[in-house]
Amino acid sequence: MAESFETWDAGGQAIHVRKHLRASMRDGVELALDVYHGPEDTPRPALVALSPYGKELQALALTMPPQRRPSPMWDGCIEAGDIARVVGEGYAHVIGDLRGSGDSGGEHIGNYNAGGVPLGQDAYDVIEWVAAQPWCDGNVGMIGISYFGSMQILAAAERPPHLKAIFVSGGHYDFYETTYHGGVMWFMPRAAREGRGGDSGWAFTDRVKSRMLETHSPEELEKLVAKRLEDPDIAAWPNLVHTLHYPTNHEAWFDIVMNELDGEWYEERNPVNLAKDIDIPVYLQLDQGRGWTLDGTIELFNALKGPKKLDIGPYPPMQSRPFIEEHEKMFRWYDYWIKGIDNGIMDEPAVSVFVEGSREVVTAEAWPPKDPAYRPLYLRPRRTLSPEPEPMGTRHAAPDGFYQAPLTVTDKVEILSWATEPFSEPTEMIGTGAAHIFAEIDQDDTNFILRLWDTAPNGKRQLITTGYLKASHRELDDRTTEGNPYHPHTRTIPVEPGTVEEYVIRLYPFANTFLPGHRLTVELSNDEPLADEHNSLLPPDAFHLPVGRPVTHKVYRDATHPSRLVLPFTGRGRA
């Protein structure tokens, strides 16, 4: 499209709009950009937003009021920020289409971590191009959540000279954990790619290529696809069968489905691995409720060496579109590092954590903000949780159990639950946790899905954290400590049916105070309900691949098999 220059009226605020600008990358490919700034004829700092979601979609932030979940008008891809607010704060807002998307040239190869030309390299070239424009004063930051946020880390690792600082809200970092939680496939990346479930999806046409198709011969690929279809979970899900048979229709998603184990394919250009190369100030922000993303955010924060902040906000997990909730913090950060305004932000603690329940904010210089005392809560008969272990053996403390039929033949997800007695005093927990589940199954694999709830006396409840583990991924690695397990996910070890195994499930980071009268409730299933108090806050496709075979589960919690939660107690009180 031809370049154009217009003046728009945004609620009485004049905004100059430069549409369809072209920035040349070092290999000659041109990326398309739109620029929004005030009418003053003076250079100003710029905030750059880059994604494959389409710059035209982001322009809706000027004409549509912010939409909170679960509004039917909420769109997960409108993530570049409030354009009018950015311009009003004295910045130029630059919104660009990544290589192979929207109006930009080139091809996109691979999945979220791309391939071919690194996305960070293109981001470097865009930032330096922006800094040289007459409407920019040479100072550049970045803006945007989720994909836009991850692009900020990829860009910062390339060290463009004019990138002064970044503010990342809700980014995704460990690419394997973005697509497989505890080895269990998550469907949300497909929603982002193809626009299912209400999201607009990536603005690709015919210029995205499968990394698998690029690197394997047809004969090799035929064998790999046949092996993947041996997984009964995959074989029972029609959309995945279709994807594997017609990979050129679903290129990026095909690559994810075909790479069910962690390894080089996910690790190249993993933002967590790139953190050592980042030397500019970084502000990381995320709200609670999407534990795998919070886990990656904390891991990235700990790896950064330069000036940094970590801000963990309150539940619920899905911000409005655009993400107006965090703009005040973002502009304080950029006013300090880009405009040179001494507003005191660097005099404040590096870590800020909102604690659900008490609704207090805890601050510190590191995560976790308090040293946790890891203490167990044992699964006991009559669906109770207790700080005391079960004294009886298996014969008298018979296991709990459930049979889950595949969702191809039932709509019901079977759930076991255990709960504490009401807390007698406020009891605070901040950190990661673990669930040690001794279980016997009659198949060679299943899923273990745990969800922890804060249940009020009136029955209302709020999700606190979750944990996922595919049984064949139960192997632990040497990073594991008490209450903080890690799984390498580099191989599968099928379960021998009829044997009792200990499954140690990572519970994602959380911060909650259980108030007097409240209970902690833990639920265990091998699939997840498609709709409940928490899932209604997420896009419709944000659920996990169900188990495709019938499985009987026996959960042992006796003197020989001490099934338990190990939780990070940081305040007074006991169960």
From TrEMBL:
Keywords of the record: Hydrolase
A GO MF label: hydrolase activity
Domain Xaa-Pro dipeptidyl-peptidase C-terminal: 331-566
Keyword Nucleotide-binding: no
Highest taxon listed in the record's lineage: Bacteria
Protein name stated in the entry: CocE/NonD family hydrolase
Species this chain originates from: Sinomonas flava
